[in-house]
Amino acid sequence: MTQIDFYILGENSPRNINQMVCSLCEKALSQKMTVFIYTLSADQAHQLDELLWTFKANSFIAHKNQLNETDNESTFSYPVIISNSEVSETYNQLLINLTAEIPVFFKQFKRVAELVGKQSDEKEIARNRYRSYLQQGYTLNKYDL
Fold this sequence. Notes:
Blueprint: E1 3-8, H1 17-30, E2 35-38, H2 42-54, E3 63-65, E4 80-83, E5 94-97, E6 111-116, H3 120-135, E7 140-144
Parallel strand pairs: 1-6, 1-7, 2-4, 2-5, 3-4, 5-6
């Protein structure tokens, strides 16, 4: 069964969601995991694409931004894919969900990371996802950052 982890940014957390995504990618890659970052929009995907290049001065996270119909098998050699559309089942280890909904394809992943921002509306949307996962019988982990 898929492991679901909620990462909650506290009011005083110096990080933002995008920085947290980069940290999770870095940690996942150190564990030899593939990562699919599911974004709300192409614009959000572009912002993360830029940040992954500059996240740390002494490293970079190899990734591909946005999948399209011309992609081929070589696309799937990237350890991190960022997209606002579904991904091939090739990526099945870590899903970082940045959308307001639970992706219909989340069960293909071993782990799902749900990030919760500092704003009250972000917290309310996350609570709805949390309840939905619980109703489906998933055990949830919560990490306050």
